[in-house]
Design a protein that fits this description.
With about 400 residues, this protein is an alpha+beta fold. It folds into two domains: about 5-260, Endonuclease III, domain 1, CATH 1.10.340; about 270-400, Nucleoside Triphosphate Pyrophosphohydrolase. The protein contains 16 helices and seven strands. Strands 1, 2, 3, 4, 5, 6 and 7 form a seven-stranded mixed β-sheet that branches. The two termini are about 45 Å apart. Bound molecules: iron/sulfur cluster. The site of iron/sulfur cluster (SF4) has 14 residues, from α11 and α14.
Length: about 400
């Protein structure tokens, strides 16, 4: 059946029922709720989505072309990289990784610091450490072949429900649905799910599973991802182009943009701190490695204070590195950065040191030109850019753009 014919066929289907809230008005018992889910899902034509996918699938560097067998390594690598990051950001990283480490065995043999350096700028560094640990586990425990069961996939470092389902469905065509933010949005709208996220996650997963077609699980998963990333956008979804336009409950009510319902976000308490940029006369900056555990573990940083709610600026210099003769100058402004669980503001201090200045224990001097190769998290790139921008009027802008 052609896409147009499918869409036409879909149009004859009555809009899906709205799933009311679990509590309060419209309360259903568990049995009633399951019946409502089944009733609602029965009205959605999964084949219509597959037909749309056949004509409109995005071309992505990690995606197998029609007739090609998906490579589990590529599927896994791209899925880990894509978490919390856009396709545009990931594409060059993916290409670099694949060129340098074309197989999971090659990645397993890499030095962890090299992997962290290659990852720098993608954020969420725990993922890079897990990526490396997972490659080693696949090489050691599974002979270099990703397992093909959800349980075995979930037992690997850094692989949770979402990635396990994505690898299982896309690489092995197993009946699994990876549900990320995009897919949650599509499902919440399609069924007008009134419960708020994150409490509604379980229900949304059940709804997505209820739609799994008898064949082509991998294509169905990718089609859902594509629909969420293209037509079913957070704002102004292009419902007229959507293969589910006639059976989408929220679209039927005209309030699709209000889904998914979300519980109000509780922002973490802001933290503050100080960062110290020591600049040596031969164009080198003092850096050190963060501890192996905790936030931004093992990444490179400039020395700094603790980041705390009650940081006292007047005592900032107590946290400066032990560099004899350093005269620290507090720079105007500050660097702001938002982590997932708290916003951070850093005061930046700058000092000039002679060429002969020695690095304190645990620190080292790095050429400014070599900074792109360092595993510097984004917040540290901002700090150094702030200091160099202040100092050089943008002279060192080149490495900052990476
Ligand atoms: S009809 Fe609109 S709101 Fe409903 S799934 Fe399609 S794009 Fe999303």
């Amino acid at each position: 059946m052609t896409v147009a014919a499918r869409t036409q066929a879909t149009k004859k289907i009555a809009p899906a029922v709205t799933l009311p809230r679990k509590r309060g008005r419209g309360k259903l018992g568990q049995g009633g709720r399951e019946r409502a889910v089944l009733e609602a899902s029965a009205q959605i034509d999964s084949e219509a989505l597959l037909a749309w996918y056949d004509g409109h699938a995005r071309v992505l560097p990690w995606r197998a072309r029609r007739g090609e067998r998906p490579d589990p390594y590529k599927v896994w690598l791209s899925e880990i990289m894509l978490q919390q990051t856009t396709v545009k950001t990931v594409a060059p990283y993916y290409a670099r990784f694949l060129k340098r480490w074309p197989t999971v065995e090659a990645l397993a043999q890499a030095e962890r610091d090299d992997v962290l350096r290659a990852w720098a700028g993608l954020g969420y560094y725990a993922r890079a450490r897990n990526l490396h640990a997972c490659a080693r586990a696949v090489a050691e425990r599974h002979g270099g072949i990703f397992p093909d069961t959800l349980d075995a996939l979930r037992a690997l470092p850094g692989i949770g429900d979402y990635t396990a389902a994505a690898v299982a469905a896309i690489a092995y065509d197993m009946p699994a649905v990876p549900v990320d933010g995009n897919v949650e949005r599509v499902m919440a709208r399609l069924f007008a799910v009134e419960d708020e996220l994150p409490a509604a996650k379980g229900e949304i997963k059940r709804l997505a599973h209820a739609l799994l077609p008898a064949r082509r699980s991998g294509d169905f998963a990718q089609a859902l991802m594509d629909l969420g990333a293209t037509h079913c956008s957070p704002r102004r979804p292009a419902c007229a182009l959507c293969p589910w336009t006639a059976c989408c409950a929220a679209r039927g009510r005209g309030d699709q943009e209000t889904f998914p319902r979300k519980a109000p976000k509780r922002e973490g308490k802001p933290r503050r701190g100080a960062a110290f940029v020591a600049l040596r006369a031969d164009g080198r900056i003092l850096v050190q490695q963060r501890p192996d555990k905790g936030l931004l573990a093992s990444m490179t940083e400039v020395p700094g204070s603790e980041w705390s709610h009650d940081f006292d600026d007047r005592r900032a210099l107590r946290a400066s590195p032990h560099l004899s003769g350093a005269k620290w100058r507090r720079l105007p402004g500050a660097v702001s950065h938002v982590f997932t669980h708290f916003p951070l503001k850093l005061t930046v201090y700058l000092a000039h040191l002679p060429k002969a200045a020695r690095a304190p224990h645990g620190a080292r001097w790095v050429k400014i030109a070599d900074l792109p190769g360092e595993a510097l998290p984004k917040v540290m790139r901002k700090v150094i850019a702030h200091a160099l921008g202040e100092e050089q009027g943008g002279h060192h802008a080149k490495w900052r753009r990476r």
